[in-house]
Amino acid sequence: MAGIYIHIPFCRKACHYCDFHFSTGLAAMEDMGSAICNELYQRRDFLAHTPISTIYFGGGTPSLLPNHILQQILETINKYFSFEKTVEISFEANPDDITKEALTQWMQAGINRLSIGIQSFQEADLAWMNRAHTAAQSFQCIERIKEVGFTNYSIDLIYGSPALTDKGWEENLDIVVQNNIKHLSAYALTVEPRTALARQIQQQKIADVDPDKQAKHFNMLSAWANHHNYTHYEISNLAIEGYRSNHNTNYWKGVPYLGIGPSAHSFNGNKRGWNISNNALYIQAQKINMVIYEEEVLTDTQRANEYIMTSLRTIEGLDLTHMQALLGETAVMRILLSAKKAIENGRLQRENNILVLTQAGKFLADGIASDLFL
Fold first, then answer.
1. ∠ at Cα 26 (275, 284), nearest 5°?
2. What's the rounded Cα separation, in Å, for the pair 291 and 9?
3. Domain spanning 2-252: which CATH class is it, in words?
4. Of 271, 209, 265, 290, nearest to 21 (Cα)?
5. Which of 116, 165, 220, 224 has the highest CB neighbour number within 10 Å of its CB?
6. How open is the CA angle 264-267-271, to the nearest 5 degrees?
7. What is the pLDDT at residue 342?
8. Which are the contacts of 83, defined by CB distance < 8 A and separation ≥ 6?
């Protein structure tokens, strides 16, 4: 199996915390749609004709796409790729773009899973982030999704921002339960370089994030999940049984995927590549049937370190048997030696031949993983 990721590099406005590639100029939408379709054709052999099990429209803001461009992209994928019997087609959308007409069009086009960028139900928090929608629009879009008949949808929430109180975070989580939302992606606010948020903090115009507050919100999230029967199946993802994101799960399992669009990344098991992060150059290159991207052939050690990073984020954990098959027994012994301190301080535990993060270790997952790198 394999996946396809489509990057739609347009947004209505720039959120202060975001460092993804996008443009707020929407004039090139038609040309971008044609360029994306052309890249799909140019790179149709990248996955060696492995059947596609997931398609994911991310961004940016895919819900800004006119319906005829969305249909054009899906028709192109259908023309040049083969599929497994059940294909998960996910589509990111913002609350202010969600109308009954749009939802109906998405469903008719074949979209069967939505990922809604709500981020918070607190008005002050949304203003602090510079989000384009209001809390009222968030509630309204959830009702519309139910009315149209989507049953598989997720929302994004951000915790640990200076504007979000403990009570506000608790209220956000309560709203998830009250609305029977079966999948939640919850992210700690990260201050990325070259963002408006980073500049405002550097200029001391706003308060920096508080790691202790973020850790508290993460623990509140975990306790909430246990109480309401959500499986915390990955550090940032929680779901009722049967509603996990197949596309993201495949990322963490190392399943090959093709990334299409400016800044999109691809992985076929041995090579990783990334497209140019420039809309105008991307479109110009596609007009002459050229794909501008860089790539690297991964060594066994690089593949192993990526597996360490991704597997530790999941509840399945790091399989030492898999590591031994990849790099041999010596590599496993080195990992266990590096893991000793985390095991002793209760942040990592060994269950048979699996290393799994404890609750105390989950919020420190990236640091623990880097300590295990070969």
1. 40
2. 16
3. alpha beta
4. 265
5. 116
6. 120
7. 97
8. 51, 52, 53
Three-state SS for 286?
helix
- Give the Cβ contact number of residue 354 at 10 Å: 15
Q: Is 45 exposed, middle or buried (0-12, 13-18, 19+ CB in 10 A)?
A: exposed
Q: How confident is the model at residue 194 (pLDDT cuts 50, 70, 90)?
A: confident
Helices (H) and strands (E) in the chain, counts: 15, 15
Q: Looking at 290-328, list the stretches that DSSP marks H as alpha helix, in order from N- to C-terminal side.
A: 300-312, 320-327
Between the CA of residue 264 and those of 74, 251, 310, what are the distances in Å? 17, 14, 19
**How far, in Å, CA of 372 to CA of 335, rounded?**
5
Which neighbouring-strand residues pair with 324? Answer: none
Q: Which CATH number fits domain 300-372: 1.10.12, 1.10.10, 1.10.3470, 1.10.101?
A: 1.10.10
- The residue assigned the tokens 């606010």 is 189
CA distances from 106 to 17, 34, 65, 101, 346 (A): 28, 19, 10, 9, 46
Q: Note the pLDDT tens digit of each residue in 319-367.
A: 999 999 988 999 999 999 999 999 999 999 999 899 999 999 999 999 9
Cα separation of 96 and 11, whole Å? 12
Secondary structure of residue 275 in the 3-state scheme: strand
How far apart CA 59 and CA 11 sit, in angstroms, is 8
Give the separation between CA 267 and CA 256, rounded to whole angstroms: 5
Q: Is the pLDDT of residue 207 over 90?
A: no
66 residue type, one letter: P
Residues in the chain: 374
Sequence-ordered alpha helix ranges (H) in 52-164? 67-80, 100-109, 123-129, 135-148
What's the pLDDT tens digit per position in 51-60?
A: 999 999 999 9
Domain ranges of the chain: 2-252, 300-372
| Of residues 61, 102, 118, 114, the one with CA closest to residue 245 | 114
Q: Provide CB contacts within 8 A for 296, sequence distance 6+.
A: 271, 272, 273
